[in-house]
């Protein structure tokens, strides 16, 4: 599945950004922030198609 590679990179970047942003928020941990970031990147990519 070579078509998923760019999506995987975008999801990884968004997950890292989400984890960093979620660090100072007390009730949201980096794992939830990473999941939210990756989910947002996936949603954004699939919204186009």
Share of helix among residues? over 70%
Helix and strand element order: HH
Radius of gyration (Å):
12 Å
| Overall tally of domains | 1
Stretches where pLDDT is under 50 for at least 5 consecutive residues are none
Number of helices: 2
Report the sheet with the most strands, covering strand number, pairing sense and barrel closure: none
Percent of residues in β-strands: under 5%
> Would you tell me the overall average pLDDT?
81
- Head-to-tail CA distance between termini: 17 Å
- State the shape: elongated
- Secondary structural class: mainly alpha
Number of strands: 0
Describe this structure in words.
The structure is a single chain. The protein is mainly α. It has one domain. It contains 2 helices and no strands. Helix 1 (5-22) runs antiparallel to helix 2. It is elongated, with a radius of gyration of 12 Å. 22% of the residues are buried.
Descriptive key words:
about 50 residues, mainly alpha, about 0% strand, single chain
How do you describe this structure in short?
The protein is an all-alpha fold and 49 residues long. The protein is built from 2 helices and no strands.
Set out the fold topology.
Blueprint lengths: L4 H18 L7 H18 L2
Helix pairs in contact: 1-2
């Amino acid at each position: 599945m070579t078509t998923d590679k760019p999506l995987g990179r975008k999801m990884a970047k968004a997950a890292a950004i989400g984890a960093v942003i979620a660090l100072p928020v007390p009730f949201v941990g980096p794992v939830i922030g990473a999941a939210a970031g990756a989910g947002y990147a996936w949603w954004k990519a699939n919204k186009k198609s």
